[in-house]
Design brief:
The complex is a heterodimer of chains A (255) and B (214). Chain A is an all-alpha fold and 255 residues long. Chain A contains six helices and no strands. Chain A has a domain of 177 residues. Chain B is mostly helical and 214 residues long. Chain B contains eight helices and no strands. The longest helix of chain B has 33 residues. The radius of gyration of chain B is 18 Å and the shape is globular. The model of chain B has no long low-confidence stretch (mean pLDDT 89). Classes of the chains: A mainly alpha (255), B mainly alpha (214). At the A-B interface, helix 4 and helix 5 of A face helix 6, helix 7 and helix 8 of B.
């Protein structure tokens, strides 16, 4: 997929000076993410001590919390991209928002699955009997950004899609903390934060930080890949339209 | 014309159209009563369970009736291409949006006026006054968000399909506080609903310009 991305055969683009082409930079980022994930796996499964109360299942925490934070980061990108697009109608922030939304949705799904696997032994979890506020508010979060992607799909492409999606991304981001606090206020089973309160032992904190770094690196790589893909798609479409125009014009000249 | 005068004029236009054509309200009232008939068959009802599920039925029917009412608010303008004409007038897009939301909220209120006694008749239980207060209080906020997404959805290919997908998750906090009003923390839940109304009216008002302005 990265073939022909960096000023290759497919696209007539100006040469990129001294810096390596985008495809090479993306490959380096993928390699870096893989290495970071290997390091995170070592930290989470070997280096970090086993939790005395929860046993091995506690190790889910590292990926669960990291992917939740990365998902919020993606949705923040959707918000910022939307605001910048509405301010100056620049296609670049819109493309960034478009690239970040599915990655955020993916990370929310990872957070979900990790949380459910953890909850099964710890809460003896049965969704029909154990209602949890965080689970419900995350389901809402997921639905909001699934709606965002649907708007992008169904809106007329181009400016309208960018404008409408930006509104959904902004209103959705405002709503997410409201949902979060409203259900927390209702009642919850979800564990309280341990990181910012300093309740986490140093070795576990180190493992978590390495995992967070790996997840953020992978997130950045995925968003960048999607960004480049979207840009190339736009370039290809513009090129196709130009060809079509030239074909029509030359056809019109023939009497 | 001031902002309020424009908004009221648009709301008056919408309600007058509705009064003359009598299209949406009779259909919505019928929808509400049918939803209650379905409830009679869908739930295993007795004196104890009816009282317990009545507030839940109230919320479910209000949400779905709201989707129909708000969906209509912009669909009719789109079909007749009159939204463009409205936007060409000197009235600002936000005033037009506010007027349409106001009219849609009035339609939903009329719906609730059928629904609340309807639950009493069909389920045989009176609703807790706090549940009714919470629903009435939520109508303003739900109308603001519902009309925002309705205006957005009519500009897409999916139209009616997109409105529930967008509006339902964003409406969840209203249901949460509405349900919490029945758990003994009523004053704070109702205060939170009011705060939520103000927040979403401001957010929808700020966003409306970008949805309507093409």
């Amino acid at each position: 997929m990265t073939r022909g991305v960096g000023g290759g055969k497919g696209f007539a683009r100006p040469a990129q000076g001294g810096s390596p082409p985008i495809s090479t930079r993306l490959r380096v980022a993928v390699l870096g993410s893989l290495l970071a994930f290997a390091a995170a796996a070592y930290m989470d499964f070997v280096f970090a001590p086993e939790d005395s109360l929860q046993g091995p299942v506690q190790r889910i925490f590292y990926l669960h919390v990291s992917s939740a934070i990365a998902a919020y980061a993606c949705f923040a990108l959707v918000l910022i991209g939307g605001i910048l697009y509405l301010r100056r109608e620049d296609p670049r922030p819109d493309r960034l928002a478009r690239a970040a939304a599915p990655v955020g949705l993916l990370l929310t799904s990872v957070t979900f699955v990790m949380g459910m696997i953890w909850a099964k032994p710890i809460w003896n979890w049965d969704p029909s009997k154990t209602w949890d506020a965080r689970l419900s508010s995350t389901a809402v979060l997921w639905a909001v950004y699934a709606g965002y992607i649907l708007v992008r799909r169904f809106a007329p492409p181009g400016r309208t899609a960018a404008r409408l999606a930006a509104v959904v991304g902004i209103v959705g981001f405002v709503d997410v903390p409201v949902v979060h606090f409203s259900v927390l206020w209702w009642r919850t089973l979800h564990p309280q934060p341990v990181i910012e309160t300093g309740a986490l032992p140093a070795s576990m904190l180190a493992a978590w930080l390495v995992t967070l770094l790996a997840v953020l690196l992978l997130t950045g790589t995925l968003v960048a890949t999607r960004y480049v893909t979207e840009r190339n798609r736009e370039l290809a479409e513009a090129r196709r339209d130009r060809h079509e125009l030239v074909r029509l014009e030359s056809a019109a000249e023939v009497p | 014309m001031t902002f309020a005068a424009c908004a009221l004029a648009v709301a008056r236009k919408d309600l007058l159209t509705e009064w003359r054509s009598r299209e949406v309200l009779p259909a919505l009232a019928q929808f509400v009563l049918l939803a209650l008939v379905v409830t009679l068959f869908a739930f295993d009802l007795d004196a104890a369970s009816a009282a317990r599920i009545a507030p839940g039925v109230l919320w479910l029917v209000v949400l779905f009736a709201g989707l129909v009412a708000f969906g209509r608010a912009f669909a009719a303008e789109k079909v007749q291409a009159s939204l463009e004409a409205l936007l060409l007038t000197p009235a600002g897009p936000v005033a037009i949006f506010a007027g349409k939301a106001l009219a849609a909220a009035a339609v939903l209120l009329a719906c609730e006026a059928v629904l609340v006694p309807g639950i009493g008749v069909f389920l045989g239980v009176g609703l807790p006054p706090l549940a009714v207060a919470a629903v009435l209080l939520s109508t303003a906020g739900m109308a603001a968000l519902g009309c925002l997404f309705s205006a957005l959805a009519v500009q897409t290919r999916a139209r009616e399909l997109l409105l529930p997908v967008l509006a339902l998750p964003i409406w969840i906090p209203f249901v949460v506080y509405g349900a919490a009003a029945l758990t003994g923390r009523a004053p704070q839940a109702l205060a939170n609903l009011l705060a939520l109304d103000i927040l979403v009216v401001v957010v929808a008002g700020l966003a409306a310009r970008f949805v309507l302005d093409d």
